[in-house]
Amino acid sequence: MDILGNWKSKMKKWLLILLVLAVISCETTNNTIDSQIRTTSSIRLSDIESQLEINPVAALNLVFIYKEVYSVTNDQMNDDWRQLALYEKQAIENLLVLQEKAIAEERWDDVISFGRSISSIGVTTIHTGKEAEFTLAYAKKKISEGDNLSAFLAAVRSHEMQPMDSASALLFLEKAVEARQRRSSAFFLAAAQEAGARNIPPRLLEYATGRDTVSDMIKGVATVIVDRGFRVERGMGTPDRILGSAFFVDSSGLMITNYHVIASEVDPRHRGYSRLFIRMGDSTSPRIPARVIGWDKTLDLALIKTEIETEYVFSIVDRVIPRVGDNILAIGSPLGLEKTVTSGIVSSLGRRILQIGDSYQIDAAINAGNSGGPIVNSEGRLVGIAFAGIAQHQGLNFAIPAQLLAAALPEMIKGGRASRPWLGLTLCETFNGAEIIYTAPNMPASQIRLQEGLLIRSINGKTVTSRQGGLIPAMQAEMFSYGPGELVVLETINSEGIVKKNVMMTVARSDLPLLDAARIDRRERIVTPLFGMALTPLPSTLFSSNFRVNRVVRGSIADSAGISEDDPVSINRLRILEDNGYALLEISIKKRRMGYLDTNMQLPAWLDSPDLL
């Protein structure tokens, strides 16, 4: 009994100890949970604090995300929100200091970038509204450094924002004549005359009012040859060559061609041999080595350089938007037949062939080897760059607009892959405007909690208008000059008429913007940006793949496949083929238009879209 009593006594002690430990553990756990609840906000504040000095733009972006994630009313104001207000003030002050430092150091591109972010959050400074002046200062700096191409592009941008003074116009006129760019000379002559310039030197006036002939322009076009060694087929080795065209845009040897012509030079997936050359004459002419400076895969453009002097330089500042029916000439090397000129007309504008912006449809004969060659109008002004044709359909060819080239060049001149801004949005043009139909996860738009169904009213305070079918390209053009890491503000309106301003920081757009979203988002969501249909789950068992189509975007893949609203759909499989750049959707569907008969379909879609912002 004593042994049993001692055992019971010990058990009571152990039970008491365990009870005390359990209570302590519960209290500790509750305290830990309470601490975690309290520190969720603190963690975000720490992230903001860490960016205040090194990147105040990123700090401000985190401030706006914080405000969106945590709602607060006056009676709920706490220490975290007071700290947030202090951090926001400090970030703005630091950003202003960075801009002043950039001005002192004449880093005009940084000055302009900081200024855009400052303006987007509604802060007014002594430099507000001076982007045209800073851009002109940048242009003059580039002139002094001998970079005529960057200088002329910046001078035109400045003039478009605010007409330049006569002295500045005459300066660029002089440099354009020296660089033998007649159309650039004509542009700056007109700017000087608009500014009231008098006593323009006769030699400048004579050159600027002259006219180039087609024979002159041919001298500025070269054949591009990408030698990729040999490929073996059925035991036989054959030369692997890529042919294209290029044209000079600067007397230093800078030339424009298509990205797809020189892709093997810069694509890390190409493991074999690749060497780039140009040829100025026929097949007996020597190959001249060239190298890639920068490229923009999204626009199928590349900037290459060769160390030779050219007899003719095409002007890209005197770009012109053609009209349907205008006569045009295409210059290039179809099938390697150098210096070939073909004629035709502009068949249509606004073709959505590119992933950003519009392209022109032309009927001038374009064949393999023409890619990258210039398209000029009857006045010798650059209209576009040949980039695509359909071999099976003669006269169905396409050109990249010259204004897109001018907008893309500043980034390509910097070297390497051109960075373009992205917010993570997929849009659809409706009668009411540009509607958000998808927000990609982990992107600026989703971080700021933009919802599908909102209409975009303005970008950075500017209401974007366009012809029917051209609203999304117009919005993309409005965003084009912004770089990754800048703040922008989208004004949105919901179905109830509530207007809201949303500030977010742009990120760099990848070559396959929808790839990450396709990997991590739910299948019923990702089919909207990829295939153009919005799905609603049907009430059934858990984890079912049965859905109802509640919307089909006009002109989308789903629309072309005959899918309509209220069609029952089952998703069988969604494959992501990254190496090929597209997704493959396998579905079973009962189409209303076919009497609800069961149909199995396989739909492909690029992991990119012309409707992204």
Written account of the structure:
The protein has 613 residues and is of the alpha+beta class. Helix content is 36%, strand content 28%. It has 17 helices and 25 strands. Strands 1-2-3-6-5-4 form a six-stranded antiparallel barrel. Strands 7-8-9-12-11-10 form a six-stranded antiparallel beta barrel. Helix 8 packs across helix 9. The radius of gyration is 30 Å and the shape is globular. The relative contact order is 0.07. Mean pLDDT is 86; it is low at 1-8 and 20-38.
Short description:
Helices cover 36% and strands 28% of the residues. It is α+β, with helices and mostly antiparallel strands and 613 residues long. Helix 3 (79-104) packs antiparallel against helix 4 and helix 8 packs across helix 9.
Note the gap between the termini: 84 Å
Rg: 30 Å
- SS-derived structural category: alpha+beta
Number of helices: 17
- As a percent range, the share of strand residues is 25-35%
Q: What overall form do the CA principal axes indicate?
A: globular
Helix content: 25-40%
What is the mean predicted local confidence, pLDDT? 86
Low-confidence region ranges: 1-8, 20-38
Q: Would you count the extended β strands for me?
A: 25
Described by strand count, sense and barrel closure, the largest sheet is: 6 strands, antiparallel, barrel
* Strand line-up across the major sheet: 1-2-3-6-5-4
